[in-house]
Amino acid sequence: MDQRKDKHNCGISHKGCISLVPIFNHLDAEQMDEIMETVQSWSFKKGELVYRAGEKSDVLTIVNKGSLRIYRLSESGKEQLVRVLKPGEFTGELALFNETVHENYAEAMEPTSVCQITRADLQALLVKYPSISLKILQELSTRVDQSETQAARFTTESTEQRLALYLSDLLGPDSESSIVTLPLTKKDLASYIGTTPETVSRKLKELEEANLIERISSSKIKILDEDKLLFL
């Protein structure tokens, strides 16, 4: 794992990655500056691992720029995409409460910079600022809900339905546009919904032929009829 410290990614001000994170951005400027004193900044090239399964997990890792794909490997070596982290999102929160090892892999999807805070430093901050604990619990609750929803989709819905729901999720409930941008490659999207890239391509074509979507480019899709898409 090729890491290099990069002080220019997060800077010395709270206006860096810390201000992007929901668990911190409710704090005032002085409190954020205090947090920044505990932060280390690292940068990764596309394809580099931030951590791998089996390694000690003792830091909170926050995405500052770029994106990380979090995935696990089955015993047969098959990848299962767990989630994609964008700027302001974080991983490693469970290590803040118990000594553990990573169960997943975190890989840079593009040139990516992250900020990291050790367990000891963050635990001290949790004692000093209890509101951070509540924010972390809210985030954990959201992730549990997302994991349960994803697991339910694997057992109760067809591949076509999982793809349709994924596209609808990208659109969001308050979106004013009917155009979504796929944040994943076909390989990662296939891994996320439990199928193959070939099947993703075939199902997208079928949805387009049914006039439910329109493919504008390889990564942009226009949702033509969301209601019908949700009730396949």
TrEMBL record:
What PROSITE patterns does the database record attribute to this sequence? CNMP_BINDING_3, HTH_CRP_2
Q: Which UniProt keywords apply?
A: DNA-binding, Transcription, Transcription regulation
Q: Which domain of life is it from?
A: Bacteria
For this record, an example GO cellular component is: cytosol
| Alphabetized Gene3D superfamilies for the sequence | Jelly Rolls, Winged helix-like DNA-binding domain superfamily/Winged helix DNA-binding domain
Where are the bilayer-spanning segments?
none
Q: Which InterPro entries match?
A: cNMP-bd_dom (IPR000595), cNMP-bd_dom_sf (IPR018490), Env_Response_Regulators (IPR050397), HTH_CRP (IPR012318), RmlC-like_jellyroll (IPR014710), WH-like_DNA-bd_sf (IPR036388), WH_DNA-bd_sf (IPR036390)
Know the name of this protein?
CRP/FNR family transcriptional regulator, anaerobic regulatory protein
Q: Which organism is it from?
A: Alkalibacterium subtropicum
